[in-house]
Amino acid sequence: SNEIFGVIPDKMPGSENDTLALVNLGRKLYFDNRLSVNDNQSCNTCHNVLNKKAGVDNLTLSPGVFGKQGNRNTPTVLNSGFHIAQFWDGRVKSLEEQIRVPLFNPLQMAIPDERFLVDKISSLPEYKDLFEKAFPEKPGKITLEKITSGISAFQRTFRTNDRFDDFQKGRYKALTLEEIRGLETFMATGCANCHKGPLLGGNSFQKIGVKKRYENTEDKGRFKVTSQEDDMFVFKVPSLRNVALTAPYFHDGSLPTLDLAVKKMAELQLG
User: N- or C-end of the chain: fewer Cβ atoms within 10 A?
Assistant: First the structure.
């Protein structure tokens, strides 16, 4: 299975320039509720990485600072820097660009504009030193670019490591017999056609509802981004790493358990 999957690389793209000082700044920002307009939530509110949480909030749809729900299930931030693109519809490429969206989205953190955020963070004395250490070659003003590069540097440390990697490296005892049978079935039935590479997904876009139409026809997926007819109901294939911890499932959070998600995929994609 190694040529189909492989192991998660040691470092995320872009992390070679990340310093400890930059990561430390990003860590503080990631957990800071003051990044939202009314000090109500942080990045971690929806993408919880504390106490072995898998970078999600396990809600069908997440409420923003004013309690309004978004329209898509919160994807995990674990390993997300390895993905082909960010968001379910892949509308931006980099983590830095991704971070801007929830900050200024009125349904999420609802910051009115860039100036508001920069002024707010600049007014907090405990950040002065952190920014100076993180950007020794660019002293002076705090900028949105500095904020997003700090947070994304912290997110590039969200690389996971598990028994599947050990198995891929040739330690076959890392998986139980039942798990190995599951892997064989996974490959034989066609799941691995889309859920491949080291993340078991995250590296391609596919239509949901190949053999049978998916019930939710409201969300047109990538079509909204590209206006290409071929992109109707096309979404980024989610990574299956840590998937047992990230319920509920699909872009709309419609399925509460992994068991149901597997059955639904088998029906929709594989007939």
Answer: C
